[in-house]
Amino acid sequence: MAVRELRYLGDPVLTTQADPVTHFDHRLSALIDDLMDTVLLPGRAGLAAPQIGVGLRVFSYNVGGLHGYVVNPQIVDLSEETQDGPEGCLSVPELWFPTRRAAQATVKGVDAKNKPISVTGKKELARCLQHETDHLDGKLYLDRLEPDQRKEAMRQARESQWFWRGEK
């Protein structure tokens, strides 16, 4: 379909909880196609609908040769084992901060025809599943940082050229 323009930190759509998908029609299929096309650009691991301005619970992923999407995802399992590593976000470009996540995650949801699907991932895919589900809950990875790191991240973001200041 189309590669969609991204929304950036400061845009209220990124901090608003996304609504569950209730209509499984051609509009949902078009949104999924756009998410799938947009996440395929180089350097992208995942993309949630709010990141393209759509407040619905849908995300796409593209990690380690696995490319797919989940509608109405819910995290149903997180390992007790954790992973620490740098995390970034398309909506907070150029900023990477160490973020703790579960080393393995399972998300359950449905596909475009409302049929159940489940995705389980380790390492980078686990991080992606958690990160994108956070987006649908109106959270950014910056919200998970330690207070001093979050303060520094917000300072860097506000000084950036991409920071959304309400103009459109």
TrEMBL record:
Q: Which GO terms describe its biological process?
A: translation
Which PANTHER family does the UniProt entry name for this protein? PEPTIDE DEFORMYLASE, PEPTIDE DEFORMYLASE, MITOCHONDRIAL
UniProt keyword annotation of ATP-binding present: no
Question: Which protein family is it in?
Answer: Belongs to the polypeptide deformylase family.
Q: Where does Fe cation bind?
A: 89, 131, 135
Upper lineage is:
Bacteria, Bacillati, Actinomycetota, Actinomycetes, Pseudonocardiales
Q: By its UniProt entry, which Pfam families does this protein fall under?
A: Pep_deformylase
Extract one GO molecular function annotation from the record: peptide deformylase activity
Instruction: Supply the Gene3D superfamilies for this chain.
Output: Peptide deformylase (3.90.45.10)
Gene coding for it:
def
The active site of this protein is located at: 132
Q: What are the UniProt keywords, alphabetically?
A: Hydrolase, Iron, Metal-binding, Protein biosynthesis
- What HAMAP family does UniProt report for this protein, alphabetically? Pep_deformylase
Q: What are its cofactors?
A: Fe(2+)
Write the protein's name.
Peptide deformylase
Cite the InterPro entries for this sequence: Peptide_deformylase, Peptide_deformylase_sf
Show the catalytic activity. N-terminal N-formyl-L-methionyl-[peptide] + H2O = N-terminal L-methionyl-[peptide] + formate
CDD domains according to UniProt: Pep_deformylase
* EC annotation from Swiss-Prot or TrEMBL: 3.5.1.88
The question of whether Hydrolase is a record keyword is answered with yes
The function of this protein is: Removes the formyl group from the N-terminal Met of newly synthesized proteins. Requires at least a dipeptide for an efficient rate of reaction. N-terminal L-methionine is a prerequisite for activity but the enzyme has broad specificity at other positions.
Source organism's superkingdom?
Answer: Bacteria
Co-factor remark: Binds 1 Fe(2+) ion.
